[in-house]
Structure formats: C-alpha cells, structure tokens
Amino acid sequence: MGSGSFERGGQPRSVPDPDGDAYDEMVRRHAASQTSRTASPATTVEGPPVPDRASRPDYWSRHPGTLESLAPVWGSAREAIADYRNGDKVGALINGAMAVADLTGEGFVGKELYKGGAKIVGSNTWNATRKWMGKKGLLDAGQHGHHWLIPQRSSLPEWLKNQPWNVKGMPGPQVHGRMHGRYAGQPQFNEAQQLWQGTPTWAKTQTGLAAGHIVQGVEEGLTDPYRPPSP
Amino acid sequence: MIDRGVWYGLEFDAVLFSAMGLLLYVYDRLRQKRRSRTPAISGETIRLKARLRRLVRPTLLLVPAKEPGFSKIGGSPELPAGQTWPVGYEGRSFLAQIDLETLAPHAVIDWLPKEGRFYAFYDSERHGFADVVRILHSVEPAGPPVAAPAGVRPFFAERRVAFMVFTSAPSLDWLGLDVAYLDLDEDEFEQLEAIGDAPPPDELQHRIGGYPNEIQPEAMSLSCEHLARGLPDPIWGEDIPPAIARAAKEWRLLLQIDSDPALKMNFGDGGRLYVFIRERHARAGNFSKTVALWQTY
What we know:
The structure holds 2 protein chains of 2 kinds. Chain A is mostly helical. Helices cover 49% and strands 3% of the residues of chain A. Chain A has helices spanning 20-39, 66-69, 74-85, 89-101, 105-116, 126-135, 158-161, 173-180, 191-198, 201-223; strands at residues 145-147, 167-169. Chain A has a two-stranded antiparallel ribbon. In chain A, α3 runs antiparallel to α4 and α5 runs antiparallel to α10. In chain B, α2 (43-55) packs parallel to α4 (186-193). The two termini of chain B are 40 Å apart. The longest helix of chain B is centred in the N-terminal third of the chain and has 33 residues, at 4-36. In chain B, the strands form 2 sheets. A 7-stranded antiparallel beta sheet of chain B has the order 5-4-3-2-6-1-7. Classes of the chains: A mainly alpha, B alpha+beta. At the A-B interface, α1, α4, α5, α6 and β1 of A face α1, β5, α4 and α5 of B.
C-alpha cells in the first residue's frame, strides 16, 4: 500500500512515509534545476521553421510586430500602409485614423483595445478565444493568458469574460501561478505585484489618463471665472 | 459634485470608444465576409483530423451516481485500517476515491489494475510540484470515513460518482502544435475539437483516462517527463531530445479534477488538477510515482 508525505519546514515526518523519499528527491532535483535556469543566461529557443526569407513580402507590405504596432503614430501608420498594400482599404482607413488619434493619449488606449480588445464574431469559449489570440499574435506560443479583471469562475457570460481585453499574457507559468497563490515554492504576489503583473498596459495608461482628467477638472473648476464665490 | 472638466473628459472617452467599437464591428464583419469565400476545409485540417482520429483513446467521465457506491469526489476518505492521512504544508485535502473494480466492467482503460482503490489528496501550497496531488493505492478493504486532521483545508462537499464511457482526442497542445503556425480558421479548429465524443474542453468535467483538457498551452506529457526527471520546465517550441520524447509518450491521464462550484472546489481561478502516471507503473499497481499538474485561467 502506498502512503506519503513531504518535508514540512524541516520538521520530522509525523507519519510513516515510504514513498516520501522518492518525491523529496524529485522535488529537490526540480527545484535545483529551476534555480540554475534562473541564474543562467537566457536559453536560445529554436521555434518552428519560419518561411523562406525570399518568399517574404517587402518591408512596407508586412505588418509590424505586436510591440512595434503599439508605438504611437508609427505603429498605426505602418499598419495602415501594410493594409493598403495588401488590399485591405477598410483596415488602412481605420489604422490611418488611429495614427491621427495617437496624437492624443486616448488614441493610444483605444489602439490597444482595438488590437486585442474584442472578439465579436465566432465562439467566445476560452478555448476559442485563446486560439484566436494566438493567431492574432496577442499570445505567444506557449504563453499563458490570465483573466485579470473578470475571473473565469464568475457567473458572468462567456462572451464578456472571455474577451481579449480581459486576458493578460503572462511572462511565464510561474508568474501566472503566483498571481493565484503559492507556486513552486515561491509565495503569492502581494497586491501591488498582482496589480503590476496582472494589468494590461492599456489599463494602466487609462488609469493614468483618468487621474489626469480628474486633476485637470479640479484645476479648471478652481479657476473657473463663472464659479460662484465661496461664502 | 463632479466638475465640468471631468465630465468633458469622460464624455470624450465614451464617444471615442463607442466610435472605435462601431468601426471594429464593421471591420470584422467585412473580414468575416471575405473569409467565408474560402473553402470550408483545408488540406491541413484533413491531415490533422486523420492524425487525431488515430490517437483517440477511451475516457471515463465521473458523473453523479444513481446508486451510490465507493467512488466519490470530496467528502471524507474511506481509508483502509492502518492507512494514515498524508500530510502537507497545511494538511492535504481529500479530493477523490475511486474503486478500480467498478471500472473493470467498462474494460476500456486496459492499463489500470482491475482491483483495489485509489485515493487522491491535494495540497494547495504545492502548485508547481509533482506532488500537488498525491495518490494512495490499496487492495485492502475500505474502512469507515476518516475525519480530516486538524488544520486541513479546504474541505470539499461530497458527490458519489458513476462512470460514463466517451472517446477523447488529443488537443493541439498535447501534440505541441502552435496555432499561429497552422493555417486554420475558427471553424476548422472547432472541427478538430469535435473528434471524439467527450464533452467540449471548456465544460466542467472530472475524468479518468483519455487526454487532458488543457486550460493553458502546455505539452503535458513532456512536463510530466521533465518533472519526473527533475529537469527544468520544458520551453514551448524547444527541440526535444529523442529519449525524452519517447519516454513522454508513456504518460497516461489517471485523473482530471475540475473546479466544481457545487462541491466548493476551486483551484486558482476555476482551474484544473491533472494526475498522470506512467503506463507500466499503472499496470504494476505502483501509484507512488505519479506526477500532478495544475492549470488555471
């Protein structure tokens, strides 16, 4: 018959545990390997084969990468040119408008929302959403997606909680694990860390803009010439 | 009272986002129309379908029992005499107990022993480790329900279960395929998921055998092999040494337990627990070297 336990903060085992040693050894080796990976330089990752260079379209016909596409003015302008060259006139028009809108802070927020904001057509199950996000380059290969605002376990409908705006790509499984609790021996993130790691850039930007609006409004209110004098 | 300046800012945001939403809707409708002109099934889908059909395996869905027997999820374990409750960081919660003899009539999962019972215990502090779920196996007669030791949390509500046979096909995650490199549209992905008659992967399901319903992209058999060997977590897309690729094929899904609100079960944010075992160990009745994984939304 099997039974088991594992190390408990250096305390002696409270019950006989014939399988414990096998687990302890497995855990020890895994923890050591994770530590050495963290300490070592970045590993070279060789992904699946990419298309031949010669067959790739020219620079202005190619869409920019996710990061480049988020660069104010430049990203949208490149998208607009690529759309136009690929015959997507509607896309070119929208991205051109976004490049102009980038001249305001709200344009940046709107652009991020547009690029990964909504999945209107098709299924809104999580499985379909994460595939859609993978195809659009919003989640990298093997990247975890975290429901940052509306938890998956909430009773809200899938079409709302499985929207890409509610999904934040995580840097790795460990970070995602620590959003929810203790993971691989590391403690759960505190509230500030969860806010930083688990909030999309556009939401952080919008929070800053909203704060800016409030400050601006208060300032204008205080200096409003039509404001009745204080009693 | 909110000042006019604040209102102007909020109104501007609302108008801008509404306009963006409208444009996005029109744009996606146009793109959808364009996509609908393409053929419904690509050559890649046909090839993948054939591959998945070859790999289909039986799976047992744990459903509420009409005539309660030994097998159950949650509640208190009916451990044999002399069997101690496995300890954990803050105590291990009892997850499930399965009577292997009741699986035998189904005779679909040939790698499981035909006798004995197994018990699963969960430690919420061990996410990321192979022993986040520990399995005890016994051929001794089951005893009365055992109360949890002090400090064990959480305690799950009980549901006696029976088994329904389905067929399960591997996911693209299990095969290590990245959707970005597949020239498939949403309909074609749905066609691939419809292979096998098991419930769709997003539905709540507790299962034995077949393939896991991954929440996040992970080649789980590879993760199991790495964990069992004490290697770092595998990196998606990285070259796999042939020896590890071969060994990874031996891992079988022993148990999948889903977050289940009716049983007060929640693993992270609606996550799942997966327990894997090497086929040869299962056949030999050795449940001491299982590897468990956890995923969440």
